[in-house]
Amino acid sequence: HESPRRASDATTPGLIDEVTPAAPAQTTGVVTEPDQTPMAEDDESADGYAAVAQAPPTVAVVPIDAVIEPGVDQNTTKTQRPAAARGVRTRKAPTKPVPVAALTLAGGPSWSAARLFSIYGVGGYDEQEKRATSALLSTVMAVKEFGRALISRLGGPAGTIETYQEVSFKLGERTVIPDGVIRVSRAGKLWTALLETKTGTNALKPEQLETYLEIARLRGFDAVVTLSNEISLLGGEHPAGLDRRKLKKVALQHISWSEVLHEAQMQLSHRGVEDRLQAWLLSELIRYLEHPKSGAAGFEDMGAGWVPIREAIRAGTLRPSDRKINEIIQSWDKLVRHTGMRLTSQLGVLVQPVVSRALANDATARINASIAGLVADGTLQAVIRIQQAIGPIDIIADLRTSHVRIGLNIDAPREGGASRRVNWLLRQLKDAPDALSIEVFSSRKDQTTCELLKDLRETNLPLLPDASADIRSFRLSQTFPLGPKRNGVKGAFIPSVNAGVDAFYGQVVQALRPWTKPAAKLPAEVSEGAAETIEALDEEANHPE
Fold first, then answer.
1. What is the pTM (predicted TM-score) of this model?
2. Among 167, 257, 145, which residue's Cα sits nearest to residue 212?
3. CA 20 to 30 Å from 430, out of 273, 327, 468, 515?
4. Partners of residue 479 on adjacent β-strands
5. For residue range 515-544, what is the model confidence (pLDDT) as tens digits?
6. DSSP tag of 57
7. Helix (H) and strand (E) counts in the chain
8. Residue 150 belongs to what H/E stretch?
9. SS3 of residue 117 by DSSP
10. What is the DSSP code (8-state) at residue 270?
């Protein structure tokens, strides 16, 4: 979908000038901090932009270079640096999450709460895109903690954030209107990024992004940011696949609506927001983005090639040259990334895919390795690392058997006999499901055993290959049913993988703690001597001569 405001596609390199509207637009409110410098015309600006506010239905001009930098006198243009603070520098206490108060005065369950960002009346893609962009940019400017976290993901600095929507530029004879502009002021420097958003199934257009990169290059802006429902592949590949040679002077960053939503959830529930009103504002953004009509969808579809590839695997006819196999591999990579983002927002700790160093920066080699595994044994494989968990979790989706197997490897204690080492693990699995598979690995390859947890509730003997075996590690795994459908909620592939990962982590992994070597013990005679000395001193203190 391409909105009418971008109908012209002919690119004519040249100087960029602002487009001045025929009449001023209706003013809309802007959230600013009490000590924030107001907008005004900057004498140092070479282009002399004029500050004109805009209403959503009208294409208007918003000042880009008309921001007065903090500490800059408009008349002298000399930086007035504040006096250095004296005293002891202290570390700021971490922000605690502020709960959003629930509404309690409603007259009945049918009463619908008033919403800051309403989904009522959302029409076509163009209006959907404008509403989602406006809701996000206003929240980024109003909620300081969320704004700084999001800007940091885009490569920007921490500072005063100002956002603008639908700014007009001239590129030769053509008018170009990005969806937004983000500006951050810090220490007398200005970081500027152009924003292009897409909602729903709309895809980013390379020719459109190249135009924005040209504007940013000629203007001296720092970045072009794209925001859509497309999730970047592992390794940071941009969904639009632009030539890297065009990114020498301007950075091209991509973020998905899923990342924005999970970042907001992470900030609200785990990192915290100081102000209760700002916490409510952030919760309203989350509620809006979670609604299907917002156009900010998560990862919900494995692609049109899913069913043909799945059927070819079952029939044994899949070959590496199949045209649709690349699409499935990329969809699997996106699902793994989405799983990491989802768990990060739910757990409050970083969850990331794990890729070998040889494949981390080589997308082609990584895709070829995944294709080889899919063709050879019909499986899609991935590994994720959850911060503070006992170890990485591996995910194996077997399309031949329609099952997904989630597993984890654990190092055994380095002290004690075989029975003691097995008991150390079983004590931590008292609440784990009976279907959990436990495999024991010893220093000798022929001393390997595997049993279900339900058979080990009373005794550990089935897991002991030999009383003298040197047990080195354990493997825990569980099999879950795999949905065959490409999308949807019931019977779909993506929800079944997510459910398996959640169940395995919640019922097994989160209760496990790694073995730690006990503290060194003093010899018995030393401990006894110290006790006798203390006892004698106490006796002397209680009965002085």
1. 0.74
2. 167
3. 468
4. 405
5. 888 888 889 888 888 988 998 888 888 877
6. T
7. 12, 14
8. helix 144-153
9. coil
10. I
